[in-house]
Amino acid sequence: MSTKKPMNKWLLYTIFVAKFISGLGLIVWTIYMTMQSDVGEDNDNAFLSTYHSIDDNYNDMIISNTKLNSKYLITFNLNKEVIKGLSHEDIFLSQRAVEKRQTRKNILILGDNNFSINITDKSGNIIKDTDTKMLITMATNHKYDKRIEFKDNQNKIFNFNRAGYWNITGTVRVNNEKGYFYIKTNAR
After folding, report:
1. Which class does domain 46-187 fall in?
2. pTM (2 decimals)?
């Protein structure tokens, strides 16, 4: 009958220490690689602000939008799409929801895009002293962001050369009152 010789105590300790050190090394490597990437950075700029500010002031934004929509008719003319009123509901949709819906789909086109914003009171009188800031950004990165500013119902033409999913977000300021909009669409 053969008896099994027990494992050398020092070999067992060495294997344990090696596993422990390599485990610590993998933890340090993970932290180092995470610090080198963009993980945790706030580059979203939805509503031209940080997500911390949006999170802290979301209820105030909704109240502000309700006030502006009750006083003014704000119309976005985005190529052939007309959007009336300040809207932020698209922020709750996934990008793939754009594929399935009928409105706000394919707003952007490759090539020249024509955008205008018309702001009138409820009687139809054009409102002066308006300021609209818009950011058009891809859902996946900020490499192709376009910032556009409108003063007093201006019309702007700009060029797109990338197909994909896009977010159109920004602020509208009318007589020192501020409203917010967020539109998800795609470019083809």
Report:
1. mainly beta
2. 0.70
